[in-house]
Specification:
Blueprint: H1 4-27, H2 32-53, H3 55-61, H4 65-85, H5 99-102, H6 107-117, H7 119-133, E1 147-150, E2 153-154, E3 159-164, E4 171-175, E5 181-185, E6 203-207, E7 212-214, E8 225-227, E9 233-240, E10 249-255
Parallel strand pairs: 2-10
Antiparallel strand pairs: 1-3, 3-6, 4-5, 4-9, 7-8, 9-10
Helix pairs in contact: 1-2, 2-3, 2-4, 2-7, 4-7
Length: 262
């Protein structure tokens, strides 16, 4: 697959061609069912292409990409078979991509048309499905950092949000400017339900006013609860795996305290 800019240009050109074909079929008196079916397939193809290069759209699409891919493959595959078995100018319910245009193209050009306008988006959809079934198996052009903190500069009253991309550990802590290291989330036992396991969270919110952590001290023993955001400076958040078997994920937030008057 090309880079992000090339994919967006290709997706734009494909959308223009698909829209022209659908409008041609509409003005040509085609039945509503094949036009609607083709429009859904074209919209799905556009979503595949854009989601391939855009993380937020890819995350929003999620598992919905799988049934869309099955639909597009079924629609286009049936359309290709119908084009071979029937007259290309027929009003079949599923004539595939560019049925109106393919009606006057020769056999070789039809194959080229499908290779250029069908195979790339279906391939993008296949990679989306592969990433859902086997997370981390494919590197997309736009992959965010495994751990991001927003906002990067926070004031009292803000909510610091940790965003995770892919697998991460089950413990969260933070290095504070003065207090030292604080434990915010401890490892959950293996018997805990998925909803209680930090490693399954895609994001985690920490209000600067109420967020708290625990500091490990020798005497008296225990984990006294203390506020996280107390002093101005840089806070380094660390997400760890069990027994530190792999490198920890970190991100930084600069806390400036009270909001400055304007």
């Amino acid at each position: 697959m090309p880079g992000a800019s090339g994919t967006i240009v290709y997706a734009t050109l494909r959308a223009i061609v698909a829209l022209a074909v659908i409008l041609s079929a509409w003005h040509g008196g085609r039945q509503a069912l094949p036009i609607i079916g083709q429009a859904v397939a074209d919209a799905s193809c556009l979503a595949f292409l854009l989601a391939y290069v855009d993380y937020d759209l890819r995350a929003s699409l999620g598992w919905f990409a799988l049934p869309l891919l099955i639909y597009v493959m079924g629609w286009e595959g049936w359309g290709a078979l119908r084009a071979v078995e029937t007259d290309p100018g027929s009003d079949a319910a599923a004539d595939g991509v560019g049925a109106e245009l393919l009606g006057w193209l020769g056999g070789y050009w039809r194959v080229l048309y499908r290779l250029l306008l069908v195979v790339p988006p279906v391939g993008a959809g296949a990679f989306l499905a592969l990433a859902l079934l086997y997370p981390g198996s494919w590197a997309f052009p736009s992959m965010p950092a495994p751990l991001r903190c927003t906002p990067e500069t926070a004031v009292r009253g803000d909510t610091v949000t940790l965003h995770f991309a892919g697998h991460h550990g089950g413990e969260l802590g933070v290095f504070t400017p003065v207090t030292g290291f604080l434990y915010i989330v401890d490892f959950a036992p293996q018997t805990a339900p998925p909803s209680a396991r930090f490693e399954y969270r895609a994001r985690f919110a920490l209000p600067t006013v109420t967020a708290s952590g625990r500091v490990l001290q020798a005497a008296p023993p225990g984990y006294p609860e203390v506020p996280v955001f107390t002093d101005t400076g840089t806070y380094l958040f660390r997400v760890s795996d069990v027994a530190e078997l792999s490198a920890s994920l970190t991100c930084r937030v600069r806390y400036i305290g009270e909001r400055l008057p304007r």
